[in-house]
Amino acid sequence: MPARAGAVRRGAQERLRAGAEPEARSPARAGARVFREGRVRQAQFIKTFVAAAALAAPLGARAAPFECLIQPNQIVEIRSPVEGLISKVHVQRGDSAKAGQVLVELESSAERSAVETAKFRSEMTGRITAAKERFEYASTKLGRTKELQKQNFVAMQAHDDVQAEMRVAQAELQDARENQNLARLDHRHAVDLLNLRTLRSPFDGVVMDRMLNPGDLTQYGTETKPIVKLAQIDPLRVEVVLPVEYYRKLTLGMTGEVTPEGLGGQHTATVKVIDRVFDAASGTFGVRLELPNKRGTVPGGIRCQVEFAQLKPPERRLPSPK
Questions:
Q1: Exposed (0-12), middle (13-18) or buried (19+): which is 98, by Cβ within 10 Å?
Q2: Which of 22, 51, 75, 293 has the greatest number of CB atoms lying within 10 Å of its CB?
Q3: What residue segments make up the domains of the chain, in order of their start?
Q4: What DSSP string describes 197-211?
């Protein structure tokens, strides 16, 4: 019995020590937990500060390059303003074209004949010469009649008849001159109709495609098939999309260095257009640059990167430590 009572007493004491130990250690554990949480917050703050410093380091010089797209300044589909049969197409795909160069000719024999006829009529002088002779004769006759009337050799009625004859001759001369002017206008109109059957290049560019050939029938209208497609590659357009944070930092006339993808080399372009309507969904706005390309070494329709030496990135606020 004494041995059993001693065992029970030792078990009770051990349970008491086990129950009292958490209470005795709880302040120490709480302090350790607070210390660890403080170290974690300090490490997070240092990590955030270092990341922000890493971002701010290169931003002091210039912003990172932006993705862009090089496009032709304009693309035009050459169509005929009149219906007709294609006689000649002077260009092929890939050819260069100068402004004013003849690209396509339509069959125009009837129009050429009309031009020659109108030109001949505009140069006719027979009616004018005849009317002028009649007018001069009537003027001379009227002068003689006046002299005879002063001497009372002719009646007043004869004088009036000669004067009326002169006025008719003057009107016929005026009519002949007006008809000649009208013939000149008809000739000019015929030339204009003939010119409509000759299609010329509106600018210096390159031929992107040729859709119709000699012998094909071309029709009037915007929905019809074009004959030739032209692209103007001098200058080129560089389209880039930027975040709205850069809107106040861009100005017209600012330059950027454009690097075409896969070609290498840098080319200087000038900012010509800054959109004033943003894309709310993406928080961006468009910018257009103009890239001179007199030698035609830079193609259109290619991706690129543009870097603005004068463009500084927007300031970023460091997150406050918690």
A1: exposed
A2: 293
A3: 1-59, 108-196
A4: TEEE-SSSEEEEEE-
